[in-house]
Structure to design on (335 residues):
């Protein structure tokens, strides 16, 4: 079965409910979700690599582990098909950081996927102008110091080799509407805690940092919420999916939200296209997929070109006509 949605575009989600109805829903679900096919018990892996522009970044996300199918009765309800539990080693890496971890994934229903990922050692190398830390949101820059607030020019010495840990809680709701249209919503809550003693002495009192993965000013000890909502038309015979993705990222800054005129919440909207070269039921190298995502910034304090603070526009803001673009490749396998 063909028609993968190109999983793991970096981040992602707020809960939405969906209904499954009509003939052929089981087959449609299997084509829509790139993790499914017909789930078997045994080893599995999946890998995604992506290059991003505005902001610039390159990320690799890999996972390998063991998966146990929960129900193996073809006569059961469609909602119980392709249900499983999986435990895996994971790693997310870029030239600026590495995040090894362990992932627990449970799919109790065909329309619901739950994941917990714990990364006990998040290491930033101090390369590519990351990690950028700041005393507060008012003084924070965006874009790894390449674009800073109007009164705070980039500091070339503010690149920290920092360490910490991260916990991610994720839920995905997905459903088919007829044979072509699919809806998927993914919500993620991410808790990051960094050891400020690992920062340079001049920055050990800092409270926020620029997170290049989510492109926001985030707390050094706190939560970031992210949401992706996809509406996708699946052209299964062509191995192609075409859709629209809305994304929102909300850092929970608490006491660090010290300037109400400078919100770091972001919103994006734009098309996503994927093409799967081939897809077999089971294979050690399966579903190689190219994907392209282009999203325009609906709200961003530095990437919509307008005024983002009282007193005028920063000379470093980026035009709203410039979208965020991601080009990537993913594949998976099982035995």
């Amino acid at each position: 079965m063909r028609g993968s949605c190109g999983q793991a575009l970096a981040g992602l989600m707020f809960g939405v409910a969906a209904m499954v109805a009509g003939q052929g829903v089981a087959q449609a679900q299997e084509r829509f979700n790139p993790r499914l096919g017909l789930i078997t018990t045994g080893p599995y892996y999946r890998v995604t690599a992506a290059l991003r522009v505005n902001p610039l970044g390159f990320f690799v996300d890999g996972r390998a582990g063991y998966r146990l199918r929960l129900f193996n009765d073809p006569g059961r309800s469609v909602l119980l098909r392709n249900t499983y539990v999986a435990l895996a080693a994971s790693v997310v890496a870029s030239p600026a950081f590495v995040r090894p971890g362990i992932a627990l994934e449970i799919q109790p229903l065909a329309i619901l996927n739950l994941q917990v990922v714990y990364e006990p050692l998040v290491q930033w190398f101090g390369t590519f102008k990351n990690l950028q830390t700041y005393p507060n949101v008012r003084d924070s820059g965006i874009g790894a110091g390449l674009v800073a607030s109007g009164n705070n020019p980039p500091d070339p010495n503010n690149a920290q080799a920092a360490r910490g840990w991260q916990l991610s809680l994720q839920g995905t709701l997905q459903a088919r509407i007829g044979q072509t249209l699919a809806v998927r919503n993914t919500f993620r809550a991410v808790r990051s805690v960094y050891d400020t003693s690992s920062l340079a002495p001049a920055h050990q009192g800092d409270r926020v940092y620029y997170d290049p993965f989510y492109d926001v000013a985030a707390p050094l000890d706190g939560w970031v919420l992210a949401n992706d909502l996809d509406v996708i038309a699946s052209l299964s015979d062509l191995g192609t999916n075409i859709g629209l993705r809305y994304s929102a990222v909300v850092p929970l800054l608490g006491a660090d939200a010290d300037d109400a005129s400078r919100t770091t919440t972001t919103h994006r909207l734009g098309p996503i296209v994927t093409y799967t070269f081939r897809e077999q039921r089971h294979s050690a190298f399966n579903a190689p997929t190219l994907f392209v995502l282009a999203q325009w910034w609906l709200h961003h304090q530095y990437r919509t070109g307008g005024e983002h603070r009282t007193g005028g526009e920063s000379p470093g803001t980026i035009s709203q006509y410039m979208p965020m673009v991601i080009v990537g490749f993913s594949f998976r396998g099982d035995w």
About this structure: The longest helix spans residues 25-32. Confidence is low (pLDDT under 50) at residues 1-36, 143-154, 307-315. The chain has one helix and 15 strands. Helices lie at 25-32.
